[in-house]
Design a protein that fits this description.
Elements: H1 2-17, H2 21-49, E1 52-56, E2 71-75, E3 87-91, E4 99-108, E5 113-117, E6 129-130, E7 134-142, H3 145-153, H4 155-188
Antiparallel strand pairs: 1-2, 2-7, 3-4, 3-7, 4-5, 5-6
Helix pairs in contact: 2-4, 3-4
Length: 189
């Protein structure tokens, strides 16, 4: 008789240890969503902490070297250290808020200005770029990530990210509730 009781208790303990597949699925999905959001945000946050400015390339003037939609990581630089062939980011003039990314054709240190040209353009830019307009040197680019960054930082993108975080939390809470409910049900038996 004791053996039967012991076997019954063993089965009960084995049942207790077995997780609900639905609870595991909910927790796993919640975790995957949260990790995915973190991974999406890393290329936008970590470089900024390291001192880079980040811009999306919206024209084809630097193709094929820098495709439209690329994310450009720009690091501050001293104008005198910029060399011919370096790609720089600069303001498009006093009246413009546009940021342009072009290659340096000449660094005229006497005049304190750069002559620049887009790789895809036939001619050099019309106006030289004064040193004061320099943002920095393009350290590296990641193709197509610029479009994702623009989407993620838009109002719609932020709302979607917030909804995804909320959904992930709901999934985690649902998984915990299912586990708790199942444990209480098993204890009652």
């Amino acid at each position: 008789m004791d053996r039967k009781r012991d076997k019954k208790q063993e089965k009960k303990q084995v049942r207790k240890k077995k997780e609900s597949p639905v609870a595991v699925l909910c927790s796993t999905l919640g975790t995957v969503i949260l990790v995915g959001l973190v991974v999406l945000c890393l290329p936008l946050t970590v470089p900024r902490v390291l001192g880079f400015e980040i811009y999306t390339v919206v024209s084809g003037s630097m193709e094929p070297a820098i495709p439209t939609g690329s994310l450009a990581y720009v690091q501050g630089a001293e104008p005198e250290e910029i060399e011919e062939g370096d790609v720089i980011a600069f303001y498009g003039g006093r009246e413009s808020t546009a940021i342009i990314t072009h290659r340096v054709v000449e660094n005229n240190t006497l005049e304190g200005e750069f002559t620049t040209k887009g790789d895809a353009n036939e001619k050099e830019d019309v106006s030289p770029v004064p040193y004061r307009e320099l943002i920095g040197e393009v350290a590296y680019t990641i193709p197509t990530l610029g479009w994702a960054a623009q989407t993620l930082t838009s109002t719609w993108g932020k709302a979607s990210a917030a909804a995804a975080i909320g959904g992930a939390l709901v999934l985690h809470l649902l998984g915990a509730w299912i586990r708790n409910h199942r444990e209480k049900k098993e204890e009652a038996q």
